[in-house]
Amino acid sequence: MTGGQTLRSATEVRTYSNDKELVGQRRYYIAEQAVKVFQDKGYERTTMRDIGKACGMAPGSLYHYIGSKQDILHLICVRFAPGADAYRRYLSTLGDVSKTEQLRKCIAYYFRVIDSSRHVVSFFNREGYRLAEEDRDYVVASEVDRQSFFEQILREGIEAGEFQVSNTALVAYNIMIYAQTWVLRKVFLRNRFTFTLEEYTEEQTRILLDTVAIRNCHVDKIE
Amino acid sequence: MTGGQTLRSATEVRTYSNDKELVGQRRYYIAEQAVKVFQDKGYERTTMRDIGKACGMAPGSLYHYIGSKQDILHLICVRFAPGADAYRRYLSTLGDVSKTEQLRKCIAYYFRVIDSSRHVVSFFNREGYRLAEEDRDYVVASEVDRQSFFEQILREGIEAGEFQVSNTALVAYNIMIYAQTWVLRKVFLRNRFTFTLEEYTEEQTRILLDTVAIRNCHVDKIE
Amino acid sequence: MTGGQTLRSATEVRTYSNDKELVGQRRYYIAEQAVKVFQDKGYERTTMRDIGKACGMAPGSLYHYIGSKQDILHLICVRFAPGADAYRRYLSTLGDVSKTEQLRKCIAYYFRVIDSSRHVVSFFNREGYRLAEEDRDYVVASEVDRQSFFEQILREGIEAGEFQVSNTALVAYNIMIYAQTWVLRKVFLRNRFTFTLEEYTEEQTRILLDTVAIRNCHVDKIE
Amino acid sequence: MTGGQTLRSATEVRTYSNDKELVGQRRYYIAEQAVKVFQDKGYERTTMRDIGKACGMAPGSLYHYIGSKQDILHLICVRFAPGADAYRRYLSTLGDVSKTEQLRKCIAYYFRVIDSSRHVVSFFNREGYRLAEEDRDYVVASEVDRQSFFEQILREGIEAGEFQVSNTALVAYNIMIYAQTWVLRKVFLRNRFTFTLEEYTEEQTRILLDTVAIRNCHVDKIE
DNA sequence: CATGAATGAGGTTTCATTCAT
DNA sequence: TATGAATGAAACCTCATTCAT
Question: Among A148, B137, C111, D136, which is 20 to 30 Å from A185 by CA?
């Protein structure tokens, strides 16, 4: 997937209800609540009764909007595996700043967004392996899209003479995993993980910018 | 936890058998097979029958060696969440080389070990949240131990004048997550993840060493 | 039950509506549609939603005309388990013909009617066992009435010296089951049941008339 | 299917158990008990708990021997839809008697067998429509086999100069439906169906033999 | 009167665990 | 010790019925 284009919409799930508007809203709501409940108990241990309770509905009522428990996985993928569109929009608001500044700001923004969607990150990390082939492809495509967003900034920085990067894909990958593992390790290590988001963002950004910065060192040393 | 000391042994599981030796072997074997089977279907979807089949035993026979299905999680933690002892032994074989070389070698070794225990990495990533408090603490301690192993090298490098690191914990953390995400993303992204282990190791090591290298740049520039 | 009298009307079902005329029409309509839908999926597997769809109504609307799903069984019995009145009317139109001709014509007419109400025959065959005692009695009475209709013709034929029948009940019974099994086996055997209705009617009528015909054989032989 | 050859065995159902011997016995037993329970409540209304109770087993235990509730239908077909082999064996024990006597005896035997398997007859009549295509084919084949058994006797009777039959298939069909409807109407009409099996057999046999008997009547009349 | 969203009882099925052999 | 048949609790899911709109 090349950056910027909209991700294909996934297939619809079977429902009993006919009111498209209502069904759409409820599906979104169910996916939203379910992904939170999955956080605590995982997909298998979470019962439809649990999900119903989280949604304020009787278990049977869920089936007006979804076809099966498995379909909830699908809904979550469609709703919560966004590509890089939001980041591209954010980038366009930054105005006329250096590529270094663009990268710094986008990283910070990305870290904040990921941090605020802990449930989703945990969910995909844990349950990703049980997704249907099609849903997995969708999620992978959304990740690849976000990765390519950061690569694009890196390449533009190289062209602008600001960056020096031997492997843009790997650096973009590192940005992604810094964000992802922030969530995962915060969840897993709990109080043994002592960074605040701001500290973590600042330190990792410093390391990243070091990595991509032009080095005059050797030239200087010669002098 | 400070590096070097042995991790506390976890509590024993209840068994029917009296032959301690045999029971110990079988437990290890069951944990070993189970963690492989969990890879495909996850903990919940894996039945005791599945595990029995993987072990060449009848499902009832498993209960001579384990107390419950949940106990298998415990066994896996005890068996497969090693601290840094193996790495310390490896380090001691390297002889008289620079700290930079030590770090480079230990990273490569660490990446190889992690790569060869994909099942275990996937398992802890996916099922970690369902561990008993005690087991989770054990696993966390083993990770902290390994992290402190790398921190130790970094600190020694700083003392030796080879490294310049503002946040040793974070750099050690990065080494750990580079290794961990190598496995996770290889599993999740499949053929869209195109690095070989050697390429990945080399590139990430270069970035890491850049990060910790002494910079004369700024000083020189001032001149 | 002796032939000719009207079958007792079954008890009314509870409804919400007050417009007796409309309610009566709708009830008939619902029974008519339902019996068709039951053909495919049987009573239990047919949902109120299915029946509603077949009637062009929302499932909730059905309950303005019926009291429960079970009531539909009752309605079908009342509407579609007719006695022999229609056959008596038909018989009265035949004019002045021999009893043999009356029997032949009535059998053909009966077979045609039964053939055109396959759904109903299949329904009673399959679901008869689950009818309420009262409804079952009603259906049985309607069958007995039809059987007695044919018996009446046979007895008249005997009195007229045209027939010689040792067991009128059994011959009448055979006429009934020839018609009924025509439908049932056509449905069950499908393309392995190769008779057309006309062939089947002709052949079975021949056998029946053989059975009831006066035999002069022995007398002739004496000559 | 031509007479005499063994009906193909239907596909096996999935089971948890490995003991072929035990599984075979239990399957037979379950089918046998289930078909009785279906008699009262029909397939859909019969719960697995009901079937388990009838078998003296817990509901879960049934699934060691069957794959699903639907599979019970399959088992019943395989176990209780016999071809004509038993009748052919019976015929071979009759010794040297006329074809008329053979037919009479076989009809009586057939009626007795059918009468003693009421449950099965009712079952196939009621639930036949929901059988899998393959199972339905199997049952139909068994019926066709039995029909062809009677046709064979009729044809041999014609060759022997004992019978005169215009449509052997239809006469054989009538024998079958006389037997089948004996059960069905006894169940449905209950106390309004007043024949005993012996009366019913005798009367229907008389009618059948009349139908197939050589008629000298017309020849005599010509004289 | 008509609708269809909501309910929740009850069905089939799975599977960890036990225990007689 | 090893087995695997048996258990029964609990899961997902369906659908007759109700009732606010």
Answer: A148
E runs forming strands in C70-136: none
Any idea which architecture A20-79 has in CATH?
Answer: Orthogonal Bundle (1.10)
Distance A63 CA to F20 C1' (A): 20
CB atoms A180 and B180 under 8 Å: no
The span from the CA of D212 to the CA of D101, in Å, is 13
Which of C44, C217, C221 is closest, CB to CB, to D45?
C44
Contact B209, B104 (CB under 8 A): yes
Fold category of C85-222 in CATH: Tetracycline Repressor; domain 2 (1.10.357)
Cβ-based interface (< 8 Å): residues of A facing B: 42, 44-45, 122, 125-126, 128-130, 136, 140, 143-144, 166-167, 170-171, 173-174, 177-178, 180-181, 184-185, 187-190, 192, 195, 200, 203-204, 206-207, 210-211, 215-217, 220-221, 223
The better pLDDT of the pair D175, B95 is held by D175
**Mean of the per-residue pLDDT values of chain A:** 88
> CA B215, C1' E14: Å apart?
63
Residue in chain A lying closest to B44 (CA): A44
Enumerate the residues of chain D whose CB falls inside 8 A of the CB of residue C45. 44, 130
Model pLDDT for residues A140-150, shown as the tens digit of each residue: 999 999 999 99
> Where exactly are the structural domains of chain B?
20-79, 85-222
B213: region left, alpha or beta (phi > 0 left; psi from -120 to 50 alpha): beta
Angle, helices A99-116 vs A168-189, to 10°: value is 30
The share of chain A scoring above pLDDT 90, in percent, equals 78
Nearest CA to D217 out of C162, C214, C215, C213 is that of C215
Nucleotide with the nearest C1' to B16 CA:
F1
Q: Which of B175, B184, B188 has the most A C-beta neighbours within 10 Å, making it the best mutation to test the interface with A?
A: B188
Query: Nearest residue of D to residue C177 by CA position?
Result: D181
Interatomic separation, CA of residue C47 and C1' of nucleotide F16, rounded (Å) = 8
Which amino acid does the sequence have at A147? Q
| Banded pLDDT at C16 (limits 50, 70, 90) | low
Count the Cβ atoms, other than its own, within 10 Å of residue D218.
10
Contacts of D190 in chain C (CB under 8 A): 140
Nucleotide nearest to A59 (CA to C1'): E8
Class of residue A88 by CB neighbours under 10 A (exposed 0-12, middle 13-18, buried 19+): middle
> C30 with C71: CB under 8 angstroms?
no
From chain D, the residues in CB contact with C188 under 8 A are 128-129, 136, 140
- Confidence category of residue A194, pLDDT binned at 50, 70, 90: confident
Does the pLDDT value for residue D12 go beyond 80? no
CB contact under 8 A, C207 and D126: no
Structure tokens given for D168: 């052997």
Across the range B4-27, mean pLDDT stands at 60
**What is the predicted pLDDT for the residue at A216?**
56
* Amino acid, res. C170: L
Nearest alpha-carbon partner for B111 in B12, B180, B206? B180
10 Å Cβ neighbour count for D111? Answer: 22
Beta bridge partners of A163: A213
HSE, CB side, 13 Å, CA atoms: give it for residue B210: 21
**Is the CB of D60 within 7 Å of strand E?**
yes
Whole-model pTM: value is: 0.86
Helix axes D168-189, C197-212, angle to 10 degrees: 80
Interatomic CA distance for residues A190 and B160, integer angstroms: 34
Report the pLDDT averaged over residues B56-85.
94
Using CA atoms, how far apart are residues B215 and B207, in angstroms rounded to an integer?
A: 14
CB C59 under 7 Å to nucleic chain F = yes
Rounded-to-integer distance, Cα B65 and Cα B60, Å: 10
